[in-house]
Structures are given as C-alpha cells and as structure tokens.
Description:
This protein is of the alpha/beta class. Among the domains are: 81-139, Dna Ligase, domain 1, CATH 3.30.1490.300; 176-311, ATPase, nucleotide binding domain (Nucleotidyltransferase, domain 5), CATH 3.30.420. The protein contains 10 helices and 16 strands. Strand 12 and strand 13 form a beta hairpin. Helix 1 crosses helix 3, helix 4 (163-172) crosses helix 10 (336-342) and helix 7 crosses helix 8. It is globular and about 70 Å long. Residues 11, 187, 288, 337 line the site of magnesium ion.
Amino acid sequence: MARNFAGIDFGTTRLRAAEVDANRQSPTILSHGSVPVPEGLISHGTVTDIDATVELLRELWSTSDIGTKNVRVGMGSTTVLIRDLVVPKSSRQRMKEALPFHVADKLPFPVDEAILDFLPVAQVEADASTVNGLLVAARAVDVHANVEAVSRAGLHVESVDVVPFATARLVAHNNVGEGGLALVDIGATATTMTVLIGGVPRFVRIVPTGGQAITERLAADLGVDLQRAELLKVRIGMTHQPASTPEKVAVDSVIHAAHELIESVRSTLQFFMNANRGITVASIRLLGGGSQLLGLKEALTAATDLPATFARPFGKLTFGPRVDEAHARAHTAEYAVALGLALRGNE
Ligand SMILES: Nc1ncnc2c1ncn2[C@@H]1O[C@H](COP(=O)(O)OP(=O)(O)OP(=O)(O)O)[C@@H](O)[C@H]1O
Ligand SMILES: [Mg+2]
C-alpha cells in the first residue's frame, strides 16, 4: 500500500505542501510546492476564509507535482496552548479522557470548545504514580476551519498535528545532542519556540509576533505603504550603514522593532530555564522567513548568549527523482513545517 503523505503548512504569507514517501528506509521527499496567500485568508496559522483557501489548495495541487491526496494538516495558531501537566498514571486513553477535568481552569477558552491531547515527555519510574507531559489544547473552531478547507479541496485529512511538534520531529533527526536545543521559527505573524531535550519537545510557546510587525513599524515610521516597507526591510536589515538621515530613520526603525521580537524570544527562553534549573539550552536553531532579517541571527546570539544558527532540517531525508535537489536545499527551512507534518508516524 502506498504510504505517501503531504504535509500542509498554513502560513500567513504562503501556503506550502511537501510530499514524502515514508515506505523507504530513509524517508524521501517526492515533491513540494507553494502558492502566495493573499492578505487576510490565513492568520496566525488558522484559515479565516475557507472558500478562498479551498481555491488556493486546488491551485497548489494543480501547479505542483504533488501526487497524493492524503494529507497531514498543521495547527500552528497562537491559540494553540502547550503547557506542562502532571497527571495520575493510567493508560494513554484514560489519561486523555481525564484531561478536561485537569485543565478546565488552565485554558483561555471554554473547555467544551477545546480539542485536547497529552504527550508524556519525561521518563518515569515504573512505580511512579504520576506522569509528566505536555498538554496540547487547540480551539476546535480553528482546527475545523483548516480541516474543512482541506476536505472541500478534495483532499483526505489523515491527521492533524501541532506545528511545533512537526518541526521538532524533523530537526531532531539531525540535532539530537546532549544539551537542550531551542528551535525558533520566526514567521510573518507568529513566532514559535520549541525547546528540545535529546530530540524530545519539552516546552513550546507560540507568540503572536513576527516579521510583519517589523514591516508595519517601518511603514508607520516612514509613512510608506507595506509593500515598500517590506522591500526596504529586506534590503537594509539591522546592519545597513545609513548614508543619509532618512536612511538612519529606517535602520533605527528596523532595529527597534527587531529588538522587540528578540526580547520576546529571549524572555521566553529565560522563563523556561528559570523554571527548569537542571536543564540547559545550549543553542538556538532558526527557521522561518523572519529569521532571514540581516543581522538578526547575530543580535539574537548577543541577547541570549546562546549561539544561533539557521536550522538545516533536511539532514537524513533523501530526494526523489522529481525533486530538484539544489533548489530544495536552497529552500530547506521554508518547507520544514510541511515536511515535519508529512513525516508523522515515521520517526
Ligand atoms: N530576507 C528577508 N529579510 C527579512 N525578512 C524576511 C526575509 N525573507 C522573509 N522575511 C520575512 O519573513 C516573514 C515571512 O516568513 P514565513 O514565510 O516563515 O511566514 P509564514 O509561514 O507565511 O507566516 P506564519 O508562520 O507567521 O503564519 C515576512 O514577515 C517577511 O517579511
Ligand atoms: Mg510559518
């Protein structure tokens, strides 16, 4: 039986999909593709305009050579909540059934509007009476919107997974070290931070900020439209040496907004380390278009005192005959979410 799956990443700026053949010894990338997302269709990882997204999905399937209709859908919305939880030890099914009672007072939305899951994380003694893990809670209405768009586009939803676990799965292939690794995906409207210990996610935060906030700030400070601000931001980044007063205003604006983003990452990682004294985070791996801002990697390293490098998530994957390997490698980080989703069940 064919076991090819495509993962779908609902990005704010692009809809991306990647198809993986999981039959082989080493998972093989068969195809990938993306289409730009017009503003307002997808926000913070959630489909907000289902009809238009159905059309986009059809366009993506007809313009790429993705062959499968079996898809794994990602949820990366900022309303997805992933928190530490300790529950009495019992079967996985029982623990899951008991979740609403454990978490009713911990959610920012009513528990009967939530889809809940529990992921045990820490090794427990055989005679321990409790299990440490991560609670995953998503708003059902958000999950249903993404699933409905996919189903109406004629695709079969095989599974729904939270985006940080999907990327962690892919990066862990490559980076299972002793120390903790913080995976930071800076998108347009969401920044997702995942701390992996020995390749296992131990902490996740999704905050509603990203590269778009820098563009918006620049547009407001210069009084220009968002398209111009976007081009200028990409050109000057945080490191450009200004040759005129207007250029200095622009560079200062980008630096200021980028530092707000960096501070949000720094304080989140600091929070995790303060709460988990025995665990050290040794380095940062960056994903997402927002991390491409010139000078951001270095500024993040300086602010956190942790070496930040770009993630190379294609480590052990091989490339099928239809994939242009050089092109795929050049776009590695862009497809990390879609690939990580497609790989589910294959780790
Ligand atoms: N070279 C670059 N320099 C600076 N910023 C960049 C660069 N390339 C992309 N970006 C920024 O990256 C952001 C888009 O990143 P990405 O494609 O990862 O987002 P997304 O997945 O569509 O959105 P999200 O994950 O927030 O839903 C935009 O804000 C864009 O301005
Ligand atoms: Mg993204």
